[in-house]
Amino acid sequence: MKPLYILLFLSSLLLQRNDLVYEKDNQRVEVVIDNGSEKLVYGKRSVLTFFLKNVNPGSLHIIGLGLRPLPEHYPNKVRLEITPDAKSNYEKDELKMIISLPAKGKRRVHTFYIPITRE
Fold first, then answer.
1. What distance in Å separates the CA atoms of residue 70 and residue 101, rounded to the nearest whole number?
2. How does DSSP assign 25-88, residue by residue?
3. How does pLDDT run along the chain (119 residues), one tens digit per residue?
4. Distance between CA atoms of 117 and 94, rounded to whole angstroms?
5. What is the pLDDT of residue 2?
6. What 8-state DSSP symbol labels residue 92?
7. Half-sphere exposure (CA, 13 Å, Cβ side) for 114?
8. 85, 95 Cβ separation under 8 angstroms
9. What is the spatial order of strands in the sheet that 94-103 belongs to?
10. Per residue in 38-59, pLDDT tens?
């Protein structure tokens, strides 16, 4: 019986998804941080790139404290910059980003949470 539990545990680890990926039907949004990490650092500038599949960048809405759009235009990605300020009110030391995208005549909403650390 123990080998079965071990196998199920290992399978669940392999099936875990990245918290910075949203995928539903044929639409996909993946957030990549330029420092290669899955964390932001207080006081340090980072660039967030949203890679899009079957999502028009012009119809994607992104909301988050301190996010600023970069003046670049790409057909399948959106780039934003952020320098988290320790004086801002980030809940639980994390950036909460809400995205909204069109799907089947309605809008889908998803929330990403990115941890913020001190160096």
1. 19
2. TTEEEEEEETTSSS-EETT--EEEEEEEES--GGG-EEE-TT-EE-S---SSEEEEEE---TTS
3. 555 445 444 444 444 345 899 999 999 999 999 988 889 999 999 999 999 999 999 999 999 999 999 998 889 999 999 999 988 888 899 999 999 999 888 999 999 999 999 97
4. 8
5. 55
6. G
7. 26
8. no
9. 40-41, 106-117, 94-103, 61-63
10. 899 999 999 999 999 999 999 9
In the chain, the amino acid numbered 5 is: Y
CA nearest neighbour of 114 among 15, 31, 27: 31
Amino acid (1-letter code) at residue 59? S
Distance (Å, rounded) from C-alpha 11 to C-alpha 98? Answer: 30
pTM more than 0.90: no
